[in-house]
TrEMBL record:
Record's keyword annotation contains Nucleus: yes
Subcellular location: Nucleus
Similarity comment: Belongs to the krueppel C2H2-type zinc-finger protein family.
Domain C2H2-type, residue spans: 58-85, 86-113, 114-141, 142-169, 170-197, 198-225, 226-253, 254-281, 282-309, 310-334
Annotated protein name in UniProt: C2H2-type domain-containing protein
Residue numbers spanned by region Disordered: 22-53
Length: 334
């Protein structure tokens, strides 16, 4: 056991350090005495490495971390001591190692020295390049012990594991709702802040997520990338395609708990449920009358506005509802 004075702080820490030359002999002789003769055996390379590792393990006195090299421990200790020797002149940030500062400076310089040999993409760190390479090789070294699913990144595996554990470590400070993914929390927080950072370049509309923006832009381009395999219809979103396919399959996954009637859309079930609850969430601003359906409120509002959007093609008469028009058109046929 030896006391090591760290250059970066004023503390002298008792560290579990075995001070030896960095290069030890490749083989360690073990002598066994048999009376008048002595035999010498050599331990395996693996055993030597294991013994060497144990002897040279350095423990952090502040936490449970263990490091194979003293230099690594000294860098780690700066987390506890708050010592940051390397500072960035552009952003004012401080770093515990020169390497960390160098990598950070690339944010300001735009330098991406690590390029992919398979495509044109470049990256700021070798780690980012290594992860990117897996998109070409298909390598997924991290597998879930619960379901066997594999992932290319450790972070993605940890995120996936929360499906099994139910862990939701990220909570909203405004409403307390919890999330398993940090990005989901950030997106949710925009409900409270009203932030809509994604704007359409073709019109003035803004959106809370990039996905919403991408879907909206299809109204300008006319793109409908999701096509039905049973008919010729195409849709702007996979959700709309999924709902449409129920017209072919007859699937009605939403059941009313009061009467057992089933529906293909959740919205239709919610609308139906108001028959049982008596809820009328839509109120007329002119007379205060309430309705269970929005379309009923819109139709009622024409009494106050005088609007008659349905006109007869045979005469000049107009009507407030399509039903009124149909009834009227029968007078021409008779």
């Amino acid at each position: 056991m030896a006391s090591v004075k760290l250059e970066d702080c004023s503390q002298t820490l008792e560290l579990n350090v075995n001070i030896k030359d960095e290069e030890e002999e490749e083989k360690i002789g073990t002598s066994v005495s048999h009376g008048d003769r002595v035999e010498t055996f050599s331990t395996s390379r693996e055993q030597q490495q294991e013994d060497h590792r144990v002897k040279r393990s350095h423990h952090c006195p502040h936490c449970e971390e263990i490091f194979p090299f003293l230099s690594k421990l000294k860098i780690h200790l700066k987390i506890h001591t708050g010592v940051n020797r390397y500072s960035n002149t552009d952003g004012g940030k401080n770093f515990t190692s020169l390497k960390a500062l160098t990598v950070h400076q690339r944010v300001h310089t735009g330098e991406k020295p690590h390029s992919c040999s398979d495509c044109v993409k470049c990256f700021t760190t070798s780690t980012e390049l290594k992860v990117h390479h897996r998109t070409h090789t298909g390598e997924k070294p991290y597998s879930c012990s619960d379901c066997g699913k594999s992932f290319s990144q450790l972070g993605t595996l940890k995120q996936h594991e929360r499906i099994h554990t139910g862990e939701k470590p990220y909570s909203c400070s405004d409403c307390g709702k919890r999330f398993s993914v940090l990005d989901h929390l950030k997106t949710h927080e925009r409900i409270h802040t009203g932030e809509k950072p994604y704007s359409c370049s073709d019109c003035v509309k803004c959106f809370t997520t990039s996905t919403e923006l991408n879907v909206h832009q299809r109204t300008h381009t006319g793109e409908k990338p999701y096509s039905c395999s049973d008919c010729v219809k195409c849709f702007t979103t996979s959700t709309r395609l999924k709902v449409h396919q129920r017209t072919h399959t007859g699937e009605k996954p939403y059941f009313c708990s009061d009467c057992g009637v089933s529906f293909s859309l959740l919205g239709h079930l919610k609308r139906h449920a108001r028959i049982h609850t008596g809820e009328k969430p839509y109120t007329c601003s002119d007379c205060g009358k309430s309705f269970s359906l929005l379309c009923h409120l819109k139709r009622h509002a024409r009494i106050h506005t005088g609007e008659k959007p349905y006109s007869c093609s045979d005469c000049v008469k107009c009507f407030t509802t399509s039903t009124g028009l149909i009834v009227h058109q029968r007078t021409h046929k008779s």
